[in-house]
Amino acid sequence: MSNQVILVDENDNEIGIEEKLSAHKKKLLHRAFSIFLFNKSSEILLQKRAPKKYHSGNLWTNTCCSHPIPNMSLKQSAKKRLFEEMGIDTELIKVFSFIYETEFTNGLHEYEYDHVLFGQFDGIPKLNPDEAVDYKWIKISDLKAQIELNPEKFTVWLRIMINNHYKHFKNYENNSL
Predict the structure, then answer these.
(1) Is 19 a catalytic residue?
(2) Res 168 pLDDT > 60
(3) Which residue is catalytic, options 65, 85, 110, 131?
(4) CA gap 8, 57 in Å, rounded
(5) Which domains are delineated in the chain?
(6) Is 58 left (phi over 0), alpha (psi -120 to 50) or beta?
(7) pTM for this one?
(8) CA 65, CA 129: separation in Å to the nearest integer?
(9) Which residues contact 93 (CB under 8 A, 6 or more apart)?
(10) CA–CA distance from 6 to each of 1, 11, 30, 99, 159 (Å)?
(11) How far is Cα 21 from Cα 72, in angstroms, rounded to an integer?
(12) What average pLDDT is seen over the chain?
């Protein structure tokens, strides 16, 4: 995995490269991606982040998320990371993008231009224990309800995506890819 992130402006234009933790400490806007895989029953594959992650350990989140690798396309980076974290190789399509910002108790700061990709997968992931310690399949409506009841069990970015961009998930559930 690359330890560099791509710095961008608010229109997703590349403006530089920065070391990952440095970008998170300096609150620099950088490119990221979030992957959601759906099975034939329109359930989403979630992962529980490893406890030793640099932030948000032991929280439930989307199938995979990371930062694109400099000089590699968004989809190539996403597919590479999906295989590294979850042992899954599948096609991905970009569905939407958004910017979010949050600060963590450890002093790190997320300020990301996040590209959200959807894909299909029916199988059992092969978790990389340094990245994910558990997984589950869940209906989008059940996930939304669980986030409303227990938001502290989910990553900030997952809560934002489900709460602010729910229509994209409902559209998928109703129409499939």
Answers:
(1) no
(2) yes
(3) 65
(4) 26
(5) 4-175 (3.90.79.10)
(6) left
(7) 0.92
(8) 15
(9) 117, 118, 119, 177
(10) 14, 13, 5, 14, 24
(11) 20
(12) 92
- What distance in Å separates the CA atoms of residue 56 and residue 177, rounded to the nearest whole number? 30
Q: What's the rounded Cα separation, in Å, for the pair 68 and 74?
A: 6
Min mean pLDDT across 1-5, 36-40, 96-100, 132-136 is at 1-5
Structure tokens at 16: 């530089």
Of 171, 138, 160, whose CA–CA distance to 47 is shortest? 138
Report the 10 Å Cβ neighbour count for 78. Answer: 24
Overall average pLDDT of the 142-149 stretch: 96
| More confidently predicted of 174 and 154 | 154
SS3 state at 118: strand
Residue with tokens 């597919």, as numbered in its chain: 79
Confidence of residue 105 (pLDDT cuts 50, 70, 90): confident
Known catalytic membership, residue 65: yes
Are residues 99 and 3 in contact, defined by beta-carbon separation less than 8 angstroms? Answer: no
